[in-house]
Write a structure and sequence with these properties.
By secondary structure, the chain is α/β, with parallel strands linked by helices. Strands 1-2-3-4-6-5 form a six-stranded mixed beta sheet, sandwiched between helices. About 4% of the residues have low confidence.
Length: 274
Amino acid sequence: MAKRYEELSIEDDFMFGKVMEDKELCRDVLQCLLEEPVEELEDVRTQREFRYTSKGKPIRLDVYTRDQKRIYDAEMQRLNHQTPENLELPRRSRFYQSTMDTDHLSRGKSYRELPEGKVLFLCTFDPFGLGYAKYSFQNICMEDRKLCLEDGTEKIFYNCIAEEIPEQLKYLYEYIRTGQVGDDLTQRIDEAVSRARKNEEWRSEYMKELLHDDDVRAEGRAEGRAEGEVCGKANGAIGMCKELGLSFEETAKRIREKFRLSEEEVQRDMKLYW
């Protein structure tokens, strides 16, 4: 069941994105994760969606940003869809990296102009099951492991439930897991989360995203679906709005707009499902 907006924490990708819109805070989080200086960020784009062909799979990057030398994608990963037979995150990181490269290399530019790229996954589970606090990957030669491809890419997966954590990452991991503030950086993140929870515009955006995602999951149904199927979707949407704490009037308005129902139909469905 979806969380109410005021229940969102930094481990939820929507809240993570909103907090990281602050360029200075985003830069400091990246510096903490990478354990090295990061130059001033040029811009920060959150929940950025890409689709390069009509048939291509669309993707949405949580936090997409760059400085003078690098491009970054930071992803908050709360759900573990991985199994030993299906390691999904490595393939996703490959897809995300290729999307970032395509976005930054215009026609006529040299490949040498590609900036360094880092894809970062902050996981609330151990993505590879070996207990490391983080897993860093670069491309190396299998015949001579001292030879690195030097293609400028790195993919790092952070295990926020690790038992042995470097000092640099300790407080950030603890905050992601528990919401417990331990240093200046996590204090600033916590204050940003508190401000975000009071932002009514973002609350509305979150609600629209939930309804959109619900709509996407229903794609593929025939256009001439039966009225009962429409009612079923309205039922689910009303339940979601109610769970998120929206009023009867606001829910009715959203259902009317989403399903293009008449006032009579809205009142009927609200009476049935509220």
